[in-house]
Design goal:
Low-confidence stretches: none
Number of helices: 8
Shape: elongated
Number of strands: 3
Number of domains: 2
CATH class of the largest domain: Mainly Alpha
Distance between the termini: 79 Å
CATH topology of the largest domain: DNA polymerase, domain 1
CATH architecture of the largest domain: Orthogonal Bundle
Helix content: 40-55%
Strand order of the largest sheet: 1-2-3
Order of helices and strands: EEEHHHHHHHH
Strand content: 5-15%
Oligomer: single chain
Largest sheet: 3 strands, antiparallel
């Protein structure tokens, strides 16, 4: 419920909705009846998750991912690749509120890209990176309501369980960096006859083999 109080010749109303509004709305009316009627209609919209455009423009608030992306692209120099990725992200999650972007949302979004859309790890990383940079900008503006961008914790969360992925999408496996010193030492000690396992790659396209030279092998 909004709060109201008499101010000399006017009535002041304060409307708060933490799940919808970044900041309270302060409204002034000539009569109490006029204020009650207007605020009743406004609260019905807010209860439905709708913020009237006039308040979004007046306060400069960014409520949804679509709002954030539009504002970010308007004032920041963004690479073409990010612009394209953000356009795709907005098309798919445009109605998501910035206040809803938390660890759980990030995890479910990544899982949906993996399982439902069958996107490759590389494509997912591009989408995540583009949105993360946009949210970074929102965090600096104070629009998200958090001081840490949840998307920036993805190195800990962004693990691909290969048992859940079809073989053709198993790409860009992470190298165990703890083994790098051992591997480097092995190569240095056996410069002429070191052996590593074969590199396996998957290509999501029809492939034509063209031999190089006259050797049939």
């Amino acid at each position: 419920m909004a709060t109201k109080r008499k101010r000399k010749a006017s009535w002041e109303y304060v409307v708060r909705r933490k799940d919808v509004l970044q900041r309270p709305l302060y409204l002034t009316f000539s009569t109490e009846a006029e204020g009650d009627q207007y605020v009743k209609r406004l609260e019905a919209l807010l209860d439905a998750g709708i913020v009237p455009e006039e308040f979004r423009r007046r306060q400069g608030e960014l409520t949804t991912i679509e709002d954030a992306a539009r504002a970010y692209l308007a004032v920041q120099h963004v690479p073409v690749s990010d612009t394209r990725c953000l356009a795709i992200v907005v098309e798919r999650v445009r109605g998501t509120r910035l206040s809803a972007i938390n660890y759980e949302w990030v995890e479910s979004w990544v899982v949906a890209m993996k399982r439902e859309r069958n996107l490759s790890p590389s494509t997912i990383r591009h989408h995540v990176g583009a949105l993360a940079r946009c949210i970074d900008w929102c965090v600096r503006r104070g629009d998200v309501g958090v001081v840490i961008n949840p998307l920036r914790l993805l190195p800990k969360l962004f693990l691909f369980n290969e048992d859940e992925m079809v073989p053709e999408l198993r790409a860009q496996r992470q190298l165990n960096k703890a083994r790098l010193p051992e591997m480097a030492r092995y190569v240095l000690e056996n410069p002429d006859d070191y052996v590593f396992s074969a590199i396996t790659a998957s290509v999501d396209a029809d492939v034509i083999f063209e031999p190089f030279g006259d050797d049939p092998d």
